[in-house]
UniProtKB/TrEMBL annotation:
Signal peptide annotation: 1-19
Descriptive protein name: Cytokine-like protein 1
Superkingdom of the source species: Eukaryota
UniProt-listed GO biological process terms: positive regulation of transcription by RNA polymerase II
Presence of keyword Signal: yes
Source organism: Cottoperca gobio (Frogmouth)
């Protein structure tokens, strides 16, 4: 009887396990994908006619999670986004959402994934150029 119970248990759990769409991301893969998305998002905001007056004076954002200077670059960019004084810019939904997502990435990198990340280079000049992804 226990064979039938085990067989029933396996047969009921197997479809559930196979229907799960993906494995949960590791901290490193989450940070890497968020950095790529935010780099592209910043470029899109600069090119968007609605937000380009707000983001025109902002420097290009290139986030390389392997560069030790990325934390300084993110902290500086967050303060620039939060410091937008123009009412139209400060209350633009996309700009606010971008700033909050960038802050979330900063918190994840500094607090949650701190031990999982390895900075392989320390070259702040590389982050000033936008090589694209």
């Amino acid at each position: 009887m226990s064979i039938f119970t085990n067989l029933f248990l396996v047969s009921s759990l197997l479809p559930l396990a196979l229907s799960y769409p993906f494995f949960p991301p590791t901290c490193y893969s989450k940070v890497l994908s968020m950095a790529r998305e935010l780099t592209q998002w910043a470029a899109d905001l600069k090119g968007d006619p609605e937000t380009s007056p707000c983001m025109a004076h902002m420097p290009d954002l290139y986030l390389d999670v392997h560069n030790a200077c990325v934390m300084y670059k993110m902290r500086t960019y967050i303060s620039l986004v939060e410091g937008l004084r123009d009412r139209r810019c400060a209350y633009t939904r996309e700009v606010r959402k971008f700033g909050l997502t960038l802050r979330q990435l900063f918190i994840i990198m500094s607090e949650k994934c701190h031990g999982d990340l390895v900075f392989t280079i320390y070259d702040c000049a590389v982050l000033e150029r936008y090589p694209g992804y």
